[in-house]
Backbone:
C-alpha cells in the first residue's frame, strides 16, 4: 500500500536508508551488559535474524565503550552486518572521544538533549558529540524522552507560558516542550555543521494520545526523518496493544521512518518479540511484507474440534521455520497468503481468496478438506495425514510460484 510520507529527508545509517521514500525500518535494542561481548553479540545476532534492521546497544561506561569495536568485529565475522546504534546519556561526549574504535564502529549515535549536561556544559557537551558524528560521518538521533526533559528548557518555557495571555494547559505544555526540545537541538546540530540528512528525531511519550499528538506536531514543523516508539510501553498484551494503537495512527498518516516496540520481556521471554510485533504492525497496515500470512477463523460452535486450530498453528510454525530459506531462494514469497478455515460457512470462500487455502470439516460435516490453489479447488484431503500433505502442497506452490 502506498502512503505518502510526511517527512522527506533521508538518512544513511550504515547500509540502511531511513526516511524519504525508503521503507519504514524496524529497530530493536539489546538488554545485555554491552561490556559482555559474547552475550551482546549473541543477542544482536538473534535480533538481526528475527528481522531487526537496526540494533541499539547501551554505551554507558568505559567498559561498554571499549567493547563496541570488538562487538562490531565479531558480528562482521559471523556475517551479521546489521548497523549498531549507540545509546548515550550523560557521558557520551567523553566516551566517544576516549574510545575512537567505538565512535567508528557505531552507525548512529543516540543523544538525549535532557541528559547531556546543564548550564554552559550542556551546549559544550552536545556540540562535542555532534562534532564526533561529523568527524566519523555518522548519523545522529536526537531522542527527547518525556521522563528526562531538559530542565532549563522546561523552566524557560513554563515561565513564558505563565506570562502568556492564553496559557497552555499542562498536557499541551508538555507536548510543546518535547517538540521544541527536539527542534532546537536539531537546529543547534545543524549550526555546528551536521547536515539535515544525518539527523533523525524522536519524541517518546508513554501515553498513546500524547505520542500521537506530539508526532503530529513534530511532522508539521520539520522535515527530518522521524523514529517512532511508545516508551515504557509495558509487558505482554498491554504493551503490544498500546504500541500498535499509537504507531498505527501515525504510520497511516505517513508519519514515521523507523519504529521500535519497547516491550518489557516476559520472564524468560525472547527479546525478538518486539521485532515480530513491529513487523506485524507494518504488515497489517500493508506497508511492508515480512512473512507469509495465515488467515484462520476464530472458531465457534460449528468447530468444536480443535484440529483446525492446531493445523493453523502448525502451518504458521512451518512458514516461520521455512522463511530463512525461502527468503533467499524465492523472492516475493513473503506476500503469500494461506487460509486455514474450520467449517463450510466461510471456509471455501476464504480459501478461494488466499493463494492457498484449506477448508476443514466442522462439527458433523463430512470428514474431508478441500484445498484451493489460486482460487481453484485442486484436491480434497482425507485421513490422518492432512497436515503433512497440506504442508507439501504449500512447499510445491512456493517452488512453482516464486522460483
Residues:
Amino acid at each position: 500500500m502506498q502512503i505518502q510520507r510526511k517527512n522527506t529527508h533521508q538518512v544513511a545509517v550504515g547500509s540502511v536508508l531511513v526516511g524519504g521514500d525508503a521503507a519504514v525500518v524496524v529497530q530493536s535494542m539489546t538488554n545485555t551488559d554491552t561490556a559482555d561481548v559474547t552475550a551482546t553479540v549473541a543477542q544482536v545476532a538473534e535480533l538481526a535474524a528475527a528481522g531487526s534492521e537496526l540494533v541499539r546497544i547501551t554505551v554507558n561506561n568505559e567498559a561498554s565503550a571499549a567493547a563496541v569495536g570488538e562487538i562490531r568485529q565479531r558480528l562482521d565475522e559471523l556475517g551479521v552486518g546489521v548497523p549498531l546504534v549507540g545509546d548515550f546519556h550523560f557521558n557520551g561526549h567523553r566516551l566517544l572521544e576516549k574510545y575512537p574504535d567505538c565512535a567508528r564502529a557505531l552507525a548512529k549515535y543516540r543523544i538525549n538533549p535532557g541528559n547531556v549536561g546543564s548550564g554552559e556544559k550542556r551546549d559544550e557537551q552536545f556540540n562535542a558529540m555532534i562534532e564526533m558524528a561529523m568527524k566519523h560521518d555518522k548519523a545522529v538521533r536526537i531522542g527527547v524522552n518525556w521522563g528526562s526533559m531538559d530542565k532549563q528548557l522546561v523552566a524557560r518555557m513554563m515561565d513564558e507560558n505563565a506570562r502568556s495571555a492564553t496559557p497552555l494547559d499542562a498536557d499541551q505544555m508538555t507536548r510543546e516542550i518535547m517538540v521544541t526540545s527536539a527542534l532546537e537541538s536539531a537546529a543547534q546540530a545543524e549550526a555546528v555543521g551536521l547536515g539535515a540528512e544525518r539527523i533523525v528525531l524522536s519524541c517518546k511519550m508513554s501515553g498513546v494520545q500524547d505520542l500521537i499528538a506530539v508526532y503530529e506536531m513534530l511532522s508539521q514543523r520539520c522535515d527530518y526523518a522521524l523514529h517512532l516508539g511508545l516508551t515504557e510501553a509495558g509487558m505482554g498484551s498491554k504493551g503490544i496493544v498500546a504500541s500498535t494503537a499509537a504507531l498505527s495512527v501515525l504510520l497511516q498518516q505517513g508519519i514515521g521512518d523507523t519504529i521500535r516496540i519497547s516491550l518489557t520481556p516476559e520472564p524468560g521471554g525472547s527479546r525478538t518479540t518486539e521485532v515480530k510485533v513491529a513487523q506485524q504492525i507494518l504488515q497489517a497496515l500493508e506497508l511492508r511484507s515480512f512473512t507469509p500470512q495465515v488467515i484462520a477463523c476464530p472458531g465457534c460452535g460449528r468447530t468444536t474440534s480443535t484440529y483446525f486450530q492446531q493445523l493453523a498453528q502448525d502451518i504458521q510454525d512451518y512458514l516461520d521455520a521455512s522463511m530463512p530459506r525461502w527468503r533467499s531462494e524465492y523472492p516475493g514469497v513473503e506476500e503469500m497468503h494461506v487460509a486455514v478455515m474450520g467449517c463450510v460457512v466461510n471456509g471455501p470462500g476464504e480459501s478461494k481468496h488466499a493463494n492457498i487455502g484449506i477448508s476443514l470439516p466442522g462439527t458433523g460435516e463430512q470428514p474431508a478438506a478441500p484445498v484451493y490453489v489460486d482460487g481453484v479447488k485442486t484436491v480434497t484431503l482425507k485421513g490422518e495425514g492432512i497436515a503433512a500433505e497440506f504442508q507439501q502442497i504449500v512447499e510445491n506452490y512456493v517452488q512453482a510460484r516464486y522460483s
User: Anything to note?
Assistant: Residues 170-192 form the longest helix (23 residues). The chain has 13 helices and 17 strands. Residues 34 and 64 are 5 Å apart (CA to CA). The chain has a mean pLDDT of 95.
